[in-house]
Amino acid sequence: MSERYDRAYRQSIDDPAGFWAEAADAIDWHRPWDRVLDDRAMPASRWFPGGELNTCHNALDRHVEAGNGDRVALIYDSPITGTKQLFTYAGLRDRVAQFAGALASRGIGHGDRVVIYMPMVPEAAIAMLACARIGAVHSVVFGGFAANELAVRIDDSTPKAIVAGSCGIEPGRIVAYKPLLDRAIEIARHKPDVCIVLQREAGPAELIPGRDVDWNDAVAGASPADCVPVAATDPLYILYTSGTTGQPKGIVRDNGGHAVALRWSMPNIYDIEPGETFWAASDVGWVVGHSYIVYAPLLNGSTGILFEGKPIGTPDAGVYWRVIAEHGVKALFTAPTAFRAIKKEDPDCALRASYDLSGFETLFLAGERADPDTVKWAETHLGVPVIDHWWQTETGWAIAANCVGLGRAPVKHGSPTRAVPGWDLRVLDEAGKERGPSEIGALVARLPMPPGCAPTLWNADERFREAYLSEFPGHYATADAGYIDEDGYVFVMARTDDIINVAGHRLSTGAMEEVLAEHPDVAECAVIGVADALKGQIPFGFLVLKDGVERDSGDIVGEVVGMVRGRIGPVAAFKAASVVARLPKTRSGKILRGTMRRIADGEAWTMPATIEDPAALDEIAASLDDAGYPS
Ligand code: COA
Ligand code: AMP
After folding, report:
1. CB under 8 Å to 469, separation ≥6 — which residues?
2. Average pLDDT, stretch 557-577?
């Protein structure tokens, strides 16, 4: 590791307040903070209390006022619709101010929530920034979620307004969002005052008079709104993520800590300076999209890319190289699954030869474990460093990374390198005792967490405390297991809860089990994540039918697959299940999901001593075998 990294890391741990106060100089403050860190705040530390700022001002107006209004802020590249559009800082500021005015004229202001349910169009980023401008709190819901998931989020965040696209476009099909929105509002107990709908040519929607307003009509008569100073500790957004039940967790992000951390991360982790182009190929519905499509590049005065397409099929596995070459991308950030898809389609990376990638310097991967095969393939074919880094929706930015801007460290395949400055990482055993180098245990961070991390869950301080702070007092529990080797390299091996990662999308098997359990013929069920060559993991269900049910099991499996798609959404990718006579359980009744997963993945396993009925595991193994697992 470089001396610069070592120095920064040491200072961030020895003197967090001094370290982050210095980083905060890169942000415009309306009013300076009273204290850098209030580590007695409940339920978790608060950064920059007393300070006031506006995140949208820092993302847009500040750069325009500094004379950089003509610089490109955002490039919209949509191979799926054949559209490209460039927004300068001044142009984006004007569009955002106008939409902020439209929201304000409908009575939306400081602290009000706005749900955004949109595909990857520039208006999604405009709506997010417009909320930030007027101090409203946005909550973006990923387009691949079904009406029920949207309804749960509407009820929890109780938005005054919903901003939606009329449709999303997936390869080969139009996903009509508006019927999903209408259904969600019907299911939800809370009703928004207004829905602002962006009509897309590919699939315009019917508007409900009195409730729905066309985006163009909403902005037509609006006067641009100015930035409103908000408290550093005020929420900027809520982003729901999978928890261990069907009730998602509303991750809260503050304004001050978030702006400071993301601004710091651009030069120091990603080695991106103002004016340089950074592309996060994710979706605005995920945390990566919030942080690195929208906020961080803009806070840094860089150029970001909003890409509406897929790594393959829009039109081919060369589209990433085309975007990198055409827009002069210096660093790309995506999920390993995207590279596995490209590798499968174009194993020799032949399509890369048609593009000039001379300006491309680094590939960053995150969202799931970066398997060494994929990393090596990318290194070989792109000829640039491939940097794995580890983070979570809760943290909002990287926990462990190779901080390229502080001097790149040697890569160890399978490791996201070392703790990022601000993160005091430890590995603990079940009793909370620290483990030695390379010994596996729970990956935790000693408090305080650095700025930018969730200070709480929306309206659920106690759930926050219970989920993250209670298991290992004085530490944040990441719910990832892994180890740290003698060089300080972190290895993230597995989740310790029921979260699985499907194509980089975080999903809860517990939430899927809740849906399966509602099928009238199902007495009991279990869902596990099984290894998948493309998506990393995919869910697989086991169903025990009620006594006396004699229907065709294929029909029942088809029905539960349809239920998960309808209730959670296509993104759950729940496509396979088996009917079994019983589930393998311990004598105390705990389902042996871990052993089932090991069997499915072809890993070594032993018959648990506490198993009630060993034959139940044999049956699981046989049904997995029938389904082609281990693959
Ligand atoms: N709106 C509606 N439906 C969506 C959607 C959206 N925004 N995003 C995905 N879906 C649907 C897909 O169409 C698919 O539907 P299907 O079952 O009818 O085929 C389903 O959800 C599963 O999608 P996905 O898991 O993305 O699989 P895929 O087979 O369509 O594509 C990849 C596979 C690898 C190409 C794709 O997952 C990908 O590009 N991943 C990149 C990962 C990423 O961006 N992760 C974010 C964290 S960094
Ligand atoms: P999300 O909240 O969707 O970002 O998912 C967070 C989870 O994804 C983490 O808790 C990890 O389990 C997993 N994850 C993210 N990045 C990595 C990585 N680089 N290596 C291993 N697992 C990762």
Report:
1. 43, 44, 447, 475, 476, 477
2. 97
- Which ligand 1 atom minimizes the distance to the CA of 334? 48
Cα 352–Cα 367–Cα 24 angle in degrees, nearest 5:
105
Q: Is the CB of 492 under 6 A from ligand 2?
A: yes
- Cβ-in-10-Å burial (0-12, 13-18, 19+) of 555 comes to exposed
Alpha helices (H) along 242-371: 256-268, 287-288, 296-299, 319-327, 336-345
Sequence-distant (6+) residues with CB within 8 A of 194 are 106, 160, 161, 162, 211, 212, 213
Distance, C-alpha 166 to centroid of its chain: 23
CA dist., res. 496 & res. 441, Å (int): 10
What type of residue sits at position 65? E
Please indicate, yes or no, whether the overall pTM of this predicted structure exceeds 0.85. Answer: yes
Token pair listed for 53: 């700022």
Is the CB–ligand 2 distance for residue 392 below 6 Å? yes
DSSP collapsed to 3 states, 566-624? HHCCHHHCCCEEEECCCCCEECCCCECHHHHHHHHCCCCCCCCCCECCHHHHHHHHHHH
Kindly list the protein residues whose Cβ atom lies closer than 6 A to any atom of ligand 1.
Answer: 119, 143-144, 168, 170, 175, 282-283, 286, 288, 310-312, 335, 337-338, 341, 367, 502-504, 570-571, 573
**Which among 135, 75, 78 is positioned nearest to 111, based on CA atoms?**
135
pLDDT tens, residue by residue, 278-302: 999 999 999 999 999 999 999 999 9
Q: Which ligand is nearest to the CA of 535?
A: 1
d(CA 225, CA 227): 7
* pLDDT of 168 strictly over 80: yes
Q: Which of 57-61, 184-188, 240-244 has the lowest mean pLDDT?
A: 240-244
CA distances from 488 to 343, 402, 412, 436 (A): 31, 12, 11, 11
Which ligand is located closest to the Cα atom of residue 565?
1
Alpha-carbon distance values, 525 to 543, 564, 584 (Å): 5, 13, 11
What pLDDT was estimated at residue 1?
Answer: 59
| CA pair distance 323, 97, nearest whole angstrom | 29
Q: Which two tokens stand for residue 407?
A: 């001097």
The predicted model gives 323-337 an average pLDDT of 98
